[in-house]
Design brief:
about 425 residues, alpha/beta, Rossmann fold, four-stranded parallel β-sheet, 16 helices, globular
Length: about 425
């Protein structure tokens, strides 16, 4: 079967490509070991630390925003800061360019005047994962991969399957059995991914796919342990910068599961500072579900290490992760930005989902609603100032996980119009 998957992979042909001017290397955040961008490497071979893409900022043009504003708002608007050699070889579904909604009614309810929601559900597969996947799959093509793989609670699998289909690659996804929202699983299925169910949690699925890709080097791993996924996701910071009139917000609040996104967005804003495009950096606030919160627990105890949660539980399936692979990067982002980590429970998440839908017309999945629940909790605690400019990241569309609505919200009214007039039923 595995040989047949290989044979289904993309067939390569020689063609002229447009090269991009960017230099980078990968560096271990623990021991400082450096690796070539042409190596297939995910973690440090010396100490198993996470890798980060590093750039020579002195060689990056200083007038980037002039170039950016002439291009459509999208991930690839910011190509000068993305580690792909050829723009003509990128695999894109026109991701990014998601709207930044000024949520006035929500702000009025919370007594906050400048609340914005970055609606990542507008991406092609309905979540922020497309930002990382366009870069990750493009890098897979650059490195000559024919098969790509991931472990997923849902959104990553949907995104990987779509971008692999676009690229002509074979996709394999490992999912925790019975713990993935049906909407996301359906997406992976329809795009033709080979789906493997693993007994246990997401963490078990991740360990399995890592072992599998280590044994089969021709299979390219595209979980957020891959540093190129992070590079794509940092484009959200650049978009917010442009959408706010070429400046950063005071605060960014987002849900935290496997913890790649909070560190990616922080890195994006740091990039802008290194290029003298912003002076002040936002504080980063991560929100975890109450029973899946190892990073928040570490933050509360002022620790630099986490204690994994053996059996994470929450209705927010996208952040139901007990041992987030990017925990160290996330803690660094929070500490370096003078931000914080907070937790919310499932009831608060569902209330926030309903609040945003009924005040602002935005339907987001439960994991996304964690950022709104966190905003509400922090506002009530006095941790958010009334005039603070806050961007909440809504990571995925509500139709990703519709089952929770069917069991938690008001049921449709069943009526017999021959027995009772509508006016009486509706009280009008």
């Amino acid at each position: 079967m595995f040989v047949s998957l290989m044979n289904r992979g993309r067939q390569y042909t020689e063609k002229k490509v447009e090269m991009m001017e960017i230099e980078h290397f990968l560096e271990c955040m623990d021991c400082g070991a450096k690796y070539s961008p042409q190596e297939i490497v995910y973690t440090c071979r010396k100490c198993n630390g996470l890798l980060d893409a590093k750039y020579d900022y002195a060689k990056i043009p200083k007038n980037l925003n002039d170039k950016w504003l002439k291009r459509p708002l999208s991930v690839w608007r910011y190509r000068e800061l993305l580690p792909i050699r050829s723009i003509s070889e990128t695999i894109s579904l026109q991701e990014g360019g998601t709207r930044l909604q000024h949520c006035k009614r929500l702000g009025d309810r919370l007594k906050l005047h400048r609340i914005f929601v970055k609606n990542e559900g507008e991406n092609p597969t309905g979540s922020f994962k497309d930002r990382g996947m366009t870069v990750g799959v493009s890098k897979a093509i650059e490195l000559g991969a024919r098969i790509v793989a991931c472990a997923s609670t849902g959104n990553t699998s949907a995104s990987l399957a779509a971008y692999a289909a676009k690229a002509g690659l074979t996709a394999i996804v490992f999912i925790p059995s019975g713990k993935i929202a049906l909407g996301k699983l359906t997406q992976a299925m329809v795009h033709g991914a080979k789906i493997i169910k693993i007994s246990g949690s997401f963490d078990d699925a991740l360990r399995t796919v890592i072992r599998f890709t280590e044994a089969h080097r021709e299979v390219y791993l595209l979980n957020s342990v891959n540093p190129y996924r992070i590079e794509g996701q940092k484009s959200l910071a650049y978009e917010v910068y442009n959408q706010l009139g070429n400046k950063g917000p005071d605060t960014v609040i987002l849900p935290v599961g496997n913890a790649g996104n909070i560190s990616a967005i922080w890195k994006g804003f740091v990039d802008l500072q290194k290029l003298d495009m912003v002076k002040k950096l936002p504080r980063m606030i991560g929100i975890q579900a109450e029973n899946s919160a190892p990073i928040a627990a570490a933050f509360r105890s002022h620790a630099r290490e986490i204690q994994p949660v053996e059996h994470p539980e929450t209705i927010a399936t996208a952040i139901r992760i007990g041992y987030p692979v990017s925990w160290k990067k996330a803690l660094n982002a929070v500490y370096d930005s003078r931000g914080l980590m907070e937790t919310v429970n499932d009831k608060e998440i569902l209330e926030a989902q309903k609040l945003l839908a009924r005040l602002e017309g935005l339907f987001i999945e439960p994991a996304s609603a964690a950022s709104i629940a966190g905003l509400k909790k922090l506002a009530e605690m006095g941790a958010i100032d009334a005039d603070e400019e806050v961007v909440c990241v809504a990571t995925g569309h509500g139709l990703k996980d519709p089952d929770i609505v069917l069991v938690s919200y008001e049921k449709p009214l069943e009526v017999d119009l021959e027995k009772e007039p509508l006016e009486k039923i509706l009280a009008v």
